[in-house]
Amino acid sequence: MIKIKELRKSFGPIVAVDGVSFEVEKGQVLGFLGPNGAGKSTVMRMLACFLRPDGGTASICGYDIIKNPIQVRQNIGYLAENVPSYSDMTAGAFLNFVCDARGLEGKRRKDALDKTVAMCHIESVYHQTIETLSKGYKRRVGLAQALIHEPPVLILDEPTDGLDPNQKHEVRLLIENMAKEKCIVISTHILEEVEGVCNRAIIISKGKILADSTPEKLKAEYNCTLDEVFRKITAHKVA
Predict the structure, then answer these.
(1) Average pLDDT, integer, range 160-176
(2) How much is the pTM?
(3) What confidence tens digit (pLDDT) does each residue in 82-137 have?
(4) Structural domain 2-75+151-235, CATH architecture
(5) 188: helix, coil or strand?
(6) Taking the C-alpha atoms of 126, 94, 49 and 7 in order, what is their torsion angle to the nearest 10 degrees?
(7) Rg (CA), the chain
(8) In Å, how far are 68, 140, 170 from 144, measured between CA atoms?
(9) In the chain, domain spans
């Protein structure tokens, strides 16, 4: 469902993404890992058509991110690292705005709102303005806007950032429940989260992929915890 080949992106002299290639299929939950500045968010923003690559190709559900950006956006749910929202809107008004943008109307809109609000547990803040919400609830509203149109592909950048342990558990269960029917990419620094919900892990550093395997195989190969695997791999210099 996601196909990436030799994707590249630079910001002036800084090479953020340096020839990244991988594919993700339906039913896979990919943990996209790397230290700060590794290129994770840049890859995700290119997949979501927020950034144009300097080179390489990528497609989602058969649609090219450069040639068919509208179709790509129709098929993805994207949760950015910093959730873009309108602080003076209520959570409900913001989600209705997203429904307008997604072309959801009538019964389909009502069903989508009812389902997503319940899934993300934001009933209690539905009528509050976003600026008054805690970081955790803002994150949940951001997750709701990514899910509301039931996309086949989810791209989630730090989906549990700011959530308390109970909320993190709820989001992990939600991802597990959706996994069979979707293709999901998660960027996170919480490695226990990767072990809990991801059936594949890619580790990237300095814009290059250093490892691509399952969490179990990585732990077995290096004979240590995933946290230690991450440190060993990313501590190596990329040629």
Answers:
(1) 87
(2) 0.91
(3) 776 788 999 999 999 999 999 999 999 999 999 999 999 999 999 999 999 988 89
(4) 3-Layer(aba) Sandwich (3.40)
(5) coil
(6) -30
(7) 18
(8) 25, 6, 13
(9) 2-75+151-235, 86-150
